[in-house]
Specification:
seven-stranded antiparallel β-sheet; 20 helices; 28 strands; globular; binds zinc ion
């Protein structure tokens, strides 16, 4: 038996948190973009949706969309979209039948799409405290208790049981009920991610083990799980599966679930990670090559898994991983106006067009920007990224201790040590290193504020009561005891430029949580218009095949953040350095060719090169070959 004392944290509730500054602006752009328009332009979540009682799509897409739309509308106080989200919620709450099952009748046999809707209802309950939600949960879990004995979980439902356990645990915490029997049955039916993480079986890209075309020629899609462990090496399932051990830790103490989690994360990053924090999977695990793809759904689902893991294990380093994804991989794969997205992004992405590429099993539109490139899951699911990030910013350790974990401009109004406290986090982080915590209201001498010091940061400056201190990273948190209106605590995380090494020893440039990429001149070509929404190809009109100097210094220029935070036109930070063209490094199969092993021997004239935040680029080199001068 594991007796390890796990340190839990609790997320704050949606109504306690507000986005501010650039983050609020980013969320407004999202609502002005496709999140605000999707109901009108995309039938899958439109007025015929099965989740409104219609004859249209009745599986995961409606719930996916709501999982982002509902909290976004709430945070922005956008009544029109809040009412739209509530129409789906109302229909769902009224849809439960005598057995306890709910949702569109045509998909009643499906379990998985219900898990997503339960996550939506959790958010709705946080905001409205509508008791019908708990009633629906109670009925559905009674239904499952019987039903899964007769009709066990399979396929997507089986692979994603972690998300159902998250909902069951939430319900138990609300009501004090203990549904251990249900959790135990689900554990016995689930795809066992513990086994995967303890001895990670996929250390190479999927095509090393399987040929998709050959499998398709010989087998039904429904038998793919048996013949190629389809669900286990599916990238979105894996990023969702990271939460599975953490969710089990709420019900069972038979294993060290924290250690299992870390082994899984470490292996997945080691064999499939790229500099942006994302994991390569062009549908299935794809290895570390920066020309392979990472799916948008996997980026937002990975962020959410990490949030649930912070709650379960109280770990700030999971917050660092969220920052890397949210401030790099997420903005890079959606256009600045939030009207088009990719299915797959490449860390080294030099051409985004309709063409065959070395993906495992996605189509030739996968890296185009559009309404529904390759497959529409990301069109429905991408909306959760920014609004869910808000819940990773602030956590409660106990009733008097508040933790500022992931850093972004925001404010919180909450009860601490029995007092109402309002704290504003003023910052332009991650672009700049200074954060000011201003206590706007309250007096709580017993309250404690703990500020996570990101793992990359070796020195900080803390300012409090007019005094400045420079500290080494001897602790994980800055701890402030006692909060009262008028207090100001400033923290500056020293953001040195760092170099990290990846596939073929390629070099990435990082500063704070941001990864920097070559600023390639882009030419955009609209190639199709559906319901007023354009699909685009992006072509490079400046060279990209640079190696970067390992030892020449980079100059940093910080600019003001414009109305588009992750703007290519007006990047908030620009680094300039030197590179040399590597003539033999060319396009292969429409992507940047295999990156030469570094260090490279290179002649030629050094040129000035400009790097901007990865999130501001749509074409780029992020993992460079390097040379030593
Ligand atoms: Zn997707």
């Amino acid at each position: 038996m594991c007796t390890k004392n796990i340190k839990r944290l609790k997320c704050c509730r949606i109504p306690e948190i507000r986005p501010e500054g650039w983050l609020k602006r980013q969320m407004e752009i999202q609502m002005e973009g496709l999140t605000g328009k999707l109901y009108q332009v995309w039938d899958c979540v439109g007025s015929y949706s099965g989740w409104l009682g219609g004859t249209g799509e009745n599986w995961e897409r409606g719930p996916y969309y709501l999982d982002g739309l509902l909290p976004l509308a709430w945070y922005l106080k956008d009544e029109e979209h809040w009412e739209l989200a509530c129409r789906f919620v109302e229909w769902t709450l009224e849809s439960a039948d005598a057995s306890g099952n709910f949702g569109p009748v045509a998909s009643r046999q499906d379990y998985w799409s219900r898990f997503v809707m339960l996550k939506v209802l959790i958010q709705y309950y946080e905001i409205k405290e509508d008791e019908r939600v708990l009633k629906l949960f109670s009925g559905y879990f009674s239904y499952l208790q019987e039903e899964i004995l007769k009709r066990p979980m399979t396929q997507w439902s089986k692979a994603r049981i972690g998300d159902l356990l998250y909902c069951i645990n939430w319900y138990c915490q609300q009501t004090g009920e203990v549904l251990k029997e249900l959790a135990a049955e689900l554990k016995s039916q689930a795809l066992d991610w513990n086994e995967v993480f303890e001895d990670f079986p996929f250390v190479r890209p999927a095509e090393y083990y399987y040929s998709w075309d050959r499998l398709l020629a010989h087998y039904q899609k429904s038998s793919m799980d048996e013949v190629m462990k389809y669900h286990t090496n599916h990238i979105v399932n894996l990023t969702m599966g990271f939460k599975y051990p953490a969710m089990l830790s709420y019900f069972f103490d038979d294993r060290d679930y924290e250690e299992i989690t870390d082994r899984g994360l470490e292996a997945a990053e080691h064999f499939h990670g790229v500099a942006t924090g994302a994991l390569n999977g062009d549908e299935h695990l794809a290895g570390n090559n920066p020309s392979r793809g990472a799916e948008l759904c996997s980026v937002v689902e990975y962020m959410f898994s990490l949030q649930t893991m912070i709650e379960a294990f109280g770990r700030g380093d999971y917050g660092d991983k969220i920052e890397k994804l949210a401030y790099n991989a997420l903005p890079a794969t959606i256009t600045e106006d939030f009207m088009a997205h990719q299915y797959l992004q490449q860390a080294n992405q030099v051409l985004a067009n309709r063409a065959e590429r070395d993906w495992f099993n996605t189509n030739e539109e996968s890296n185009m920007f559009g309404l529904e490139p390759n497959f529409g899951c990301c069109t429905a699911n991408m909306h959760q990224g920014w609004p869910k990030l808000l819940k990773s910013l602030w956590f409660k350790e106990n009733e008097h201790t508040l933790v500022s974990m992931v850093h972004a401009p925001s404010s919180i109004v909450t009860q601490l040590a029995g007092e109402k406290v309002h704290i504003i986090e003023e910052t332009e982080y991650p672009f700049k290193n200074r954060i000011c915590y201003r206590v706007a209201e309250g007096e709580a001498p017993e309250a404690v504020l703990r500020i996570w010091i990101p793992g990359w940061c070796s020195h900080i400056r803390v300012g409090q009561e007019g005094k400045q201190r420079r500290l080494g990273r001897s602790e994980d948190y800055v701890t402030v005891r006692g909060l009262k209106a008028g207090d100001e605590i400033t923290v500056e995380f020293e953001m040195d430029i760092r170099q990290s090494h990846w596939f073929k020893d390629s070099l990435a440039v990082e500063r704070g949580p941001l990864v920097y990429a070559l600023n390639i001149k882009e030419q955009w070509k609209a190639v199709r218009k559906v319901a007023g929404v354009s699909d685009y190809e992006v072509y490079p009109i400046s060279p990209w095949n640079y190696a970067i100097s390992k030892n020449a210094p980079l100059a940093v220029a910080e600019n003001t953040i414009g109305r588009v935070p992750f703007s290519k036109q007006n990047p908030p930070v620009v680094l300039t350095g030197t590179g040399k063209r590597l003539e033999g490094w060319c396009l292969e199969h429409n992507s940047a060719g295999l990156i030469p092993k570094s260090p490279v021997e290179i002649q030629g004239k050094p040129e000035k090169i400009e790097l901007i935040p990865y999130g501001c680029t749509k074409l780029r080199i992020t993992q460079f070959p390097y040379y030593v001068e």
